[in-house]
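=== RUN LOG ===
request id: a7f3
mode: sequence -> structure
chains: 1
length: 775
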Amino acid sequence: MSEYLPLLIGLLFLSGILVTVLYPIFKQRLGWVLSLIPLTIFVLLLISLGDIGTQTIKLLPSDFSLLPGIDFAFRMDGLSAIFGLLITGIGFLVVLYASWYMKNYNRQAHFFSYLMFFMAAMTGLVFSDNLMGLFIFWELTSVTSFLLIGFDHHLEKSRQAALQSLLITGFGGLCLLFAAILIGQIAGTYQISEIIASGIDFTAHPQYQLIFILILVAVLTKSAQFPFHFWLPGAMQAPTPVSAYLHSATMVNAGIYLLLRMHPVLSGTILWKYSLILAGVITMFLGAWFSMGQKDLKRILAFTTISALGTMVLLIGIGTPLSIEATLVFFIVHGLYKGGLFMVAGIIDKSTGTRDITVLSKIWKPLPATTIFGVLALISMAGLPPMLGFVGKELVYVAKIHLPGISWIILPLGVGANIMMVAISLTIFVEVFYTKSKKPAIPIHYTEKKLPWYFILGPGVLALAGLLLGLFPAGLNQVIANALFVTKNQVVDVHLLLWHGFNEILLLSIFAILLGVIVFVFRKPVTKFIRLTIKWFDIYHLPTIFMNVMNQYLKIAGKYTQRIQHGYHRYYLMTFFVATLAITAFQINWNFTELVPLGGFSTIRLNIVILLMVSSLAVLFAVFSMSRLSAILSMGVVGYGIGLLYLLYGAIDLAITQFLSETVIMVLFVMVIYYLPKFAKLSNKRSRIRDIIISLAVGAGVTIVVLHSRALNNYEPISNFFTENSLLKAHGRNIVNVILVDFRALDTLGEITVLTLAAIGVFSLFRFTIKKESK
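=== RESULT ===
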């Protein structure tokens, strides 16, 4: 399977590119067509589970890479297989779901293009076997999620949420880049499998603390951990298919994947253990606590996602084989129920026009199948049998109990979070699906009879998958064992069971369920109290603080930019010349005796002397001329004089270039001279004296540098390489052409790109001006 990974990931990217071509053909059926791609990848991954290889496949040949040690290498193992299955499996359902959900939206082609790019980036991330490749895909998920979250860009909240998520996750991406560079420098390779196999003890390295802090920041920002958790509820401004995909299987789980992937090389220290435990336990409890105080169904689910992510970070911090096993199972559990619940929320929103749980009631009547799927997902979220969520919750309790030293505080907080999950699940069920209270009837725009079957397929498949895996959890034993072998580098026997008998874990579950029911019964005073605490936290409202900091930064940046970028070209030139002269003066050897060659200077021919004298007189005339036209002509004399100087010394190509450029400049000056303002002295005598001093100093400095360059001893001129290899390697006899199109092909491509962009800009300006004048 590994050998096909580059092709499959490339196919996802290609589908995102071809959306603009496919949309006019398929229209509303485009989602059906695109969903076949992740479905195919999911099936191939599922088939390959029984024979997971460890071969690394490089996209580029070994003798060609972007930079030394950096290439796009892909690898499938037990860990990447689990993440890949959820990314593509849920991705298939989300794309199919979005094909109807987005039917009335404008720019549908843009949406599906962004979604496929997002899916491709996330798939590439989990299968990447190179740290730099992983970083590139990591940043691509940030960029594409920015486009998806801000899809409704006409809304200010959407734009603000998208920008907030991009800045926070982008900052974490930079931290990941620095960490990857440090790890690569220590290991001598950026290939993850080689780093793990090398056996290097990174924890004993002097730079371990810096590497871990950088990785930690990358994880906290990407996976919405405290204090960076606030961007995730804001991301609910995105269309519901984006929320369902982002929360269940993709972007927020990238940090979890990174921790599991780097676990073999960075774990095992007190810093790793307690930093992750602290961040995880705070995030776990705050997410559950704040979710109880929300009214919007999507915001409730968003905060429960934060709590679930905190739980996984906490378990990874514990670091035992049992806790890693619990992490992997809980990742599957969360993906199944959270993807389904978000899709259910979207169905309810489409059917009623609202997501406010204080308004919604008796949804089971118009949406019976949706209610069944939603209730199954809520049972899993609450950790009740027979859903897979019960198996996952039991494992989480076991892992926390066996945590030495601090289980006395971690376990109560974990039970408290689960109590809130039970209460939230009951609240959603009663307030949304089944209500006996006298709420006013809410108008129904779509009943299930009017909804297409594929719109309800997603939550149905995910709910039934959670039910079947809960009844038969042994089907996950080998999958979890394969991932554990990768993460812990040891064989671990996995025996998942729905029923473990009566033990302390079951008593904890019963205790949490009973207290959850009590919290639900008294939900009104509890919710009121929680909302009071939220208002207290609003004093330190992190999104507001973040935006205020960003606005203040932009204000300060604008203030200093106005000072530096003032628009006066002469001051830019003066600053450049003075800075260059100062740096040169600091580095130059001021021993003037070394400037004179041993044999003395060669004799200068009379024609060159005359040419230099004429050019010098032309410079003086241009400086003191009171006529703009005279000054332009005299500068032309200087330019042509330099061209003749090139010609006399045999540099014919330089001479031709100089003559052409001078001719073009002269023609342009003559064309616009009558449109320029009248000639005037804009500087005083002191400024002109300053400019003369700077000009003479720069001229003298350049002269000294040129004289020093004569004494440089280059061991072997690079021109010899081009002479020897132009015909042999590039198959060209014209050395200059070979240099441009072969040896320096990327430079030439860059120059062509710049010129093309400039030409497009000029053409656009001309076109705009012509249209404006014609009106």
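=== NOTES ===
The mean pLDDT is 86.
The beta strands are 56-58, 73-75.
=== END ===
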